Amino acid sequence: MGLIYVRYELLRTLRNRRFVIFSFVFPLVLYLAFTSADRHAKLGGVPFPLYYMIAMAGFGALIAAISIGPRISAERQMGWTRQMRITPLPTWYYFTAKIVAGYAIACLTLIILYIAGLAFGVHLL
């Protein structure tokens, strides 16, 4: 039952356009825009594409992980958590699904930016 709710929470999260834009699209577009111009620059001996990839991955993952709280708050304000309490789903499933969905999206952001970094020749090892 818990995994099904996690799946629905992930689908619901990915349908939120604003969330997808700020978690996936915005960091990716900024990364591609800035690193295409300064592909061979170095910051303190670190290649700029690597430096900026880490920064944008951190930004996207942070947005994905922190957005859990406001979503729970908005659902509580709308009365959704009250509705969930009258279902057989335990409360800890509800919160666990939110956390797992947030961190899964954060990992997806990291993977997308890592693939973009590979396109610019960034190697982390």
Can you tag this structure with a few keywords?
125 residues; mainly alpha; two-stranded antiparallel sheet; 79% helix; elongated
Rounded to the nearest angstrom, the radius of gyration is: 18 Å
What class, by secondary structure content? mainly alpha
Along the chain, the helix and strand elements come as HHEEHHHH
Count, helices? 6
Spatial sequence of strands, sheet with the most strands: 1-2
Compute the average pLDDT: 86
* Uncertain ranges: none
Multimerization state: single chain
Shape type: elongated
Strand content: under 5%
Biggest β-sheet description: 2 strands, antiparallel
Question: Would you count the extended β strands for me?
Answer: 2
Helix content: over 70%
| Separation of the first and last Cα atoms | 40 Å
Write structural notes for this entry.
With 125 residues, the chain is mainly alpha-helical. 79% of the residues lie in helices and 3% in strands. A two-stranded antiparallel sheet has the order 1-2. A hairpin with a 2-residue loop joins β1 (42-43) and β2 (46-47). α2 runs antiparallel to α3 (48-66) and α3 runs antiparallel to α6.
